[in-house]
Amino acid sequence: MSTFVCAHDNDFSAIAAGGIMGITIKEIAELCGVSQGTVDRALNHRPGISEKTKKKILAVASERNYRPDPVARSLARGRTMTIGVVLFDLYNRSFSQLMNAIEMSSREAGYYVHLMLTNKDPDNEKKCIEHLIHRKVDGIILFPINEGPEFDQYLRMLNIPIVTICNKVSDHWRYVGIDDRQAMKDAMDYVCRKGYERFIYVCPPLAYKGRTNIFTQEERFAGCLQGLRDNGITEQPIVIDTPAYVEALSGIDFRSAPKTAVVCSCDIYALEVMNHLKERGLRIPEDVGVIGFDNIDVLKYVAPRLTTVEYAVEQFGERAVRDIVGQIETGGSEHIPLLPYRIIAGSSI
């Protein structure tokens, strides 16, 4: 995934006049009467050069339209200045926001991004990773679908910096996320305080438990169960773990049942649930309460305002990039704490 900037006609004229690459380091050295090494130090702001000489070199470079050769710089550094990102898909709006943050943060750090989508296919995930390895990316930000010791060992054999995000593989790999279990427990505490007696938990990914990596979704479900227990709710929630979750809801009676809350593990499910309930003539929250998770940006257009769990998705991307760049450039990186979250009280509960 690369970013291209279109130039106006005047910009192209300027480039044509100065040449695509402009002046070279060798030519700057000849004009300034110094060595190419001195020019390199000045252009990269390294020590070992007087301020007067540095100013002269930078002035000549600017006047003569000097532009660094990215290929040459990559060869000199032993890096391609690219980061691979392996992501499930972009259907979930929070993933789109996250990907945007990763691309912007990478560009600010001087790196370009290669994006690969797995479509939640474990075999395709390995193909995506291997493609990035062949492209010689400097590091990978991975939203893993695979799990277990065999996959963990596979990643170790690649000998490349990796940051996992949203789903964990093992404690060996740096991880960016929140405490999903505690966040959902806090959400259930909030719902239970509203007096709900029956609970329906909507999470289609639970159908893939044991087949793919759904760490985040498993943690949220565990938090839901813990929250119910801690609030003295002994009846187990009705769990809907099928992709046809709206159809599954259609057979549930809400009018004559105890006060019911539909708890959704992601906002995208909650929005579909709300549409379904409205089509049935049910009022939210008077007849049925609904809560989501993620606080995706489109919620501002939805009525009633969805109660949800918010975390700074852009910060996920920024932290992941900061860590992977640290691993690439210094071999180490700072500790990544779990990121904060909060309950956003809407009017759907």
TrEMBL record:
Entry keyword annotation includes Transcription: yes
CDD domains: HTH_LacI, PBP1_LacI_sugar_binding-like
SUPFAM superfamilies reported in the protein's UniProt record: lambda repressor-like DNA-binding domains, Periplasmic binding protein-like I
Record keywords: DNA-binding, Transcription, Transcription regulation
Start and end residues of each HTH lacI-type domain: 23-77
GO molecular function, a single term: transcription cis-regulatory region binding
Highest rank taxon of the organism: Bacteria
InterPro entries cross-referenced by the UniProt entry: HTH_LacI, LacI/GalR-like_sensor, Lambda_DNA-bd_dom_sf, Peripla_BP_I
Database matches in PANTHER family: HTH-TYPE TRANSCRIPTIONAL REGULATOR GALS (PTHR30146:SF109), LACI-RELATED TRANSCRIPTIONAL REPRESSOR (PTHR30146)
Protein name, UniProt field: LacI family transcriptional regulator
Native source organism of the sequence: Paenibacillus thalictri
